[in-house]
Amino acid sequence: MLHDKDSLFLQGWADVGILPNFTNGRPLVIGYFARICPEKGFQNVIDAFIELRKSPGSPEYKLRASGWLGENNRPFFQEQSAKLKLAGLLVSAVKGRA
Q1: Would you say residue 53 lies in a domain?
Q2: CA 29 to CA 65: how far, in whole Å?
């Protein structure tokens, strides 16, 4: 299959092929919706997002994350937020209702 900057190829999907550029100049949004904890791999999403944003020539990406954050995982969340801040990618970390 052909790959170019105006196409997106989704690996792992059954023969979806090349999709047209559907961003209309807006950033691509990566979503995470699960419990915020190491067991669900939140740190992997953060690390991958940082790597994507550091890749030369890649389109602009945004990360939107939401999920339950237990008191015991607050230090973990703060560590992940610090990684984003250090990379210059933290826009806001909003705490929800307890």
Answers
A1: yes
A2: 10
The closest alpha carbon to 45, from 34, 59, 57, belongs to 34
Residue 98 lies in a domain: no
Residue 84, phi then psi, degrees to nearest 5:
-65, -40
List the one residue out of 60, 59, 77 whose CA is nearest residue 68: 77
Q: Which residues of 30-48 are buried (b: 16+ CB within 10 A; e: fewer)?
A: eebeeebbeeeebeebbee
Tokens of 5: 């900057």
User: Do the beta carbons of residue 64 and residue 29 sit within 8 Å?
Assistant: yes
Whole-angstrom Cα distance, residue 86 to residue 12?
A: 32
Over residues 13-57, the pLDDT tens digits come to: 334 444 455 567 778 889 999 999 999 999 999 999 999 998 888
Give how many domains the chain has, as a whole number: 1
Q: In the predicted model, what is the mean pLDDT of the chain?
A: 78
Which structural domain range is residue 53 located in? 26-86
Q: Examine residue 97 and state whether it is found in any structural domain, yes or no.
A: no
